[in-house]
Amino acid sequence: MGHTHHLSSGLTPAQLSQFKQDGYLILPDVLSPETVQSLLTETHRLLHDELDLSTHPLTKFSTGGADDREHVGDAYFLGSGDKIRFFLEEDAVDGEGKVTRPKERAVNKIGHFLHALSAPFARVSAAQEGEDEGRLSPAGVARSLGYRDPRVLQSMVILKQPEIGGAVPPHQDSCFLYTDPPSAVGFWYALEDATLENGCLSFLPGSHRWAPVEKRLVRRRTGVSDEEAGGTEMVGNEGPRFPPGEEYGEDKKGEEEGEYVAGEVKAGTLVLIHGNLLHKSERNTSQKGRIIYTFHIIEQEGTVYDGKNWLQPPEDGFTKLYA
Predict the structure, then answer these.
(1) Residue 58: CB partners within 8 Å, gap ≥ 6?
(2) For residue range 104-130, what is the model confidence (pLDDT) as tens digits?
(3) Residue 87 and residue 79: Cα distance in Å, rounded?
(4) Where exactly are the structural domains of the chain?
(5) Phi, psi (degrees; rounded to nearest 5) at 153
(6) CA–CA separation, 241 vs 248, rounded Å?
(7) What CA–CA distance (Å, rounded) separates 269 from 50?
(8) Annotated region Disordered: where (predicted)?
(9) Which of 101, 133, 227, 279 has its CA 20 to 30 A from that of 213?
(10) Smallest Cα–Cα separation from 292: which of 157, 201, 106, 107?
């Protein structure tokens, strides 16, 4: 595992400069078809075997729109950082709190500790450099991005369900996964083809350079149990709004803010997403689901991860990416 090997499992100079320019990078065929199939099989197993709606607190999770619609925050959500839990599509639950469709078709997200508790998902982030020859490894990518001690802090499967898969308004991941200074990057893997019809991602290229992290999702009360935290709220960010570096700053906004660019991708594709990048997805109105796996890393070395964040580290700390 010499130094040369890291290069082959990391980004090329051209890919790195593209990522720095756009704030996202689409990398086809990063997961083999066999790996994709193993993750889909595991997703269906979790839904079928592990989800019991009769004991489920019917938590709905939404990333909040311009109206800052509050997160449905409760102990089930706040305590999911070291567990595998299920969050439902808003339109799968009626006014009485009854689930109106089969459970496999009612779930919007599974999270947030798949990268540690589920062997098939753990293999994706822990793929050792050189294990899958010629394929990118997350550790290799993190090295090329300059991470010193990257940690995986949360992971989830997002199932954009047929007909009811909700839209996700423009947002920045660092609002939800804040470090001081910001350091989050998302690894987003398509397990099924993502198209305009079934709600693929769209990105505002270059927005990571000028869009500040203005808000943070925090616990209403800190230093108390998940039950006593009173859920979550969005508050103004009083810390740094950009990662360190001259390429960032609100003055970098051009005359033209630009248009969102859709990222239609095939299964097996990895999309890297900078924590400051504005991105969104539309509702899935089609008959075809859209299952993806995503995990996020932050820089542990030289940043502060504070107790206000909704997601608090498991007992042993966030999962190391470097072996």
Answers:
(1) 88, 93, 97, 99
(2) 998 999 999 999 999 999 999 987 655
(3) 13
(4) 3-320
(5) -110, -20
(6) 9
(7) 27
(8) 221-256
(9) 227
(10) 157
